């Protein structure tokens, strides 16, 4: 059997098979094979540049690594659990095929900096995928704005009806959330994008390597600055997991709202049946299972952040084998969030507002009460007095089971003599929406301006 790259001559016994099974990570880290091969080729190129490999040796290593990559692409590469991880598998295959030239690849490199570099490249690509999906979801919400511009919705606080908003104002609330998510992704990516390769195990190397060469070849912004820190650093994983947790939280909140909106009790929205499921016993059921799973899977993403935080909290400098366990929760968080985003996009695009149902109950809940209070303030009334008086007027309307717009003028005047006939110009949910004027509000002019801004911004992304 060929020698294992990870065991030196100091060992007096073979690895126990139980340890091989306990220590393997090939079952989950093989997904980084492209990053490992790319990093290995860049490392070999640098070694040739500084004279630690010949150009002929580099070409042999590069070409053989490409052959191995093709076999991995085609799922024709043999897996041996005694080789622990994808890095050992690739290196052993290289040695098996080209002998001592393959043994030279690991010059001035440790698995510590090799793994860190591979994960950084993998995370960088995964963050780019997340950002692309966030952008698609923003565009899906934006695509609804024109077709739903005439729909007035109740906005809620404490899950109680509060004030009226036009539908695109609601859609753009999620565009704003997603833009903050994209900002966090971009910030995180900047800290990910430093190259670990060349710090070796922990202290650097005495060999004349060029770390800037490999950093540039692998499209990193710069090499990391401290070998001790680099060997142990998993901050970029923690930050990625946090960013993904916030995205999952946003998706979960959206899912919860639309689950409620799809009920008979709300009847605000109808979702595409392609993303719903039925019941094994109740033939009438159309269940929003995609949204329920989006809400449920967010718990996994947040749990993975907790797992990673606990994993690193007591580790001394520098590398410790505990860090092998960082990849399953990291991979799972990215997989879960990307899948959730990919499903959210067609749901947002394909769902339909139940316009008649929304309109038939729009005046329930006195959404125009705050507008009435502010109308009285503009008449010169102190806010606290206006607040109290409108509460009393709403009480009258509730007792009569009528909206404010149908309450007789003399009844309102019995509470506040300042009220005159012009009050009916701002009562009713549609009139109340038209009365908004502040920047960032649901005023149609403000919303139209925001739609134009987002149309330009997302087109340029």
TrEMBL record:
Keywords: Amino-acid biosynthesis, Arginine biosynthesis, Cytoplasm, Lyase
Reaction equation(s) it catalyzes: 2-(N(omega)-L-arginino)succinate = fumarate + L-arginine
Main enzyme class: lyase
Top-level taxon in the UniProt lineage: Bacteria
This enzyme's EC code(s): 4.3.2.1
Pathway: Amino-acid biosynthesis; L-arginine biosynthesis; L-arginine from L-ornithine and carbamoyl phosphate: step 3/3
PROSITE patterns reported in the protein's UniProt record: FUMARATE_LYASES
Keyword Cell wall biogenesis/degradation: no
Any Pfam family: ASL_C2
Entry annotated with the keyword Signal: no
Domain Fumarate lyase N-terminal, chain residue ranges per copy: 10-303
Main location: cytoplasm
Location(s), subcellular: Cytoplasm
Single GO molecular function: lyase activity
Family annotation (CDD domains): Argininosuccinate_lyase
InterPro entries: Arg_succ_lyase_C (IPR029419), Argininosuccinate_lyase (IPR009049), Fumarase/histidase_N (IPR024083), Fumarate_lyase_CS (IPR020557), Fumarate_lyase_fam (IPR000362), Fumarate_lyase_N (IPR022761), L-Aspartase-like (IPR008948)
NCBIfam families named in the record: argH
Family under the similarity heading: Belongs to the lyase 1 family. Argininosuccinate lyase subfamily.
Protein name per Swiss-Prot or TrEMBL: Argininosuccinate lyase
């Amino acid at each position: 059997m060929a020698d294992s790259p990870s065991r030196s001559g100091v060992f007096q016994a073979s690895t126990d098979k139980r340890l091989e099974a306990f220590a393997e990570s090939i079952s989950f880290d093989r997904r980084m094979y492209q990053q490992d091969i790319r990093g290995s080729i860049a490392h070999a190129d640098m070694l040739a540049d500084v004279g630690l490999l010949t150009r002929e040796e580099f070409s042999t290593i590069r070409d053989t690594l490409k052959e191995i990559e093709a076999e991995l692409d085609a799922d024709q590469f043999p897996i041996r659990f005694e080789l622990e991880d994808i890095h050992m598998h690739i290196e052993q295959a290289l040695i098996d095929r080209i002998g001592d030239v393959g043994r030279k690849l690991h010059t001035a490199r440790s698995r510590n900096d090799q793994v860190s570099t591979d994960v950084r490249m993998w995370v960088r690509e995964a963050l780019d995928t997340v950002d692309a999906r966030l952008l698609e979801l923003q565009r899906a919400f934006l695509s609804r704005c024109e077709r739903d511009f005439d729909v007035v919705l109740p906005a809620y606080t404490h899950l109680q009806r509060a004030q009226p908003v036009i539908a695109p104002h609601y859609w753009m609330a999620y565009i704003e959330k997603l833009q903050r998510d994209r900002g966090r992704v971009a910030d995180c990516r900047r800290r990910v994008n430093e190259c670990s390769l060349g710090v070796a195990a922990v202290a650097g190397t005495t060999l004349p390597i060029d770390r800037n060469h490999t950093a540039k070849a692998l499209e990193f912004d710069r090499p990391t600055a401290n070998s001790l820190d680099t060997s142990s650093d998993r901050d970029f994983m923690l930050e990625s997991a946090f960013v993904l947790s916030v995205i999952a939280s946003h998706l979960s909140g959206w899912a919860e709202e639309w689950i409620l909106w799809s009920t008979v009790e709300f009847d605000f929205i109808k979702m595409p049946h392609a993303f719903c499921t039925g019941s094994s016993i109740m033939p009438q059921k159309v269940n929003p299972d995609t949204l329920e799973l989006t809400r449920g899977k967010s718990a996994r993403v947040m749990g993975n952040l907790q797992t990673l935080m606990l994993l690193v909290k007591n580790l001394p400098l520098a590398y410790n084998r505990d860090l092998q366990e960082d990849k399953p929760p990291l991979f799972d968080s990215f997989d879960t969030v990307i899948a959730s985003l990919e499903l959210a996009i067609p749901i947002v695009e394909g769902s339909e507002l139940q316009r008649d149902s929304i309109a038939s109950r729009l005046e329930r809940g006195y959404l125009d009460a705050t507008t009435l209070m502010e109308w009285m303030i503009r008449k010169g009334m102190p806010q606290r007095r206006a607040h109290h008086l409108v509460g009393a007027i709403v009480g009258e309307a509730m007792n009569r089971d009528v909206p404010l717009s149908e309450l007789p003028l003399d009844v309102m005047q019995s509470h506040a003599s300042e009220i005159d006939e012009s009050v009916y110009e701002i009562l009713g949910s549609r009139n109340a929406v038209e009365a908004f004027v502040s920047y960032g509000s649901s005023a149609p002019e403000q919303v139209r301006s925001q739609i134009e801004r987002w149309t330009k911004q997302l087109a340029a992304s």
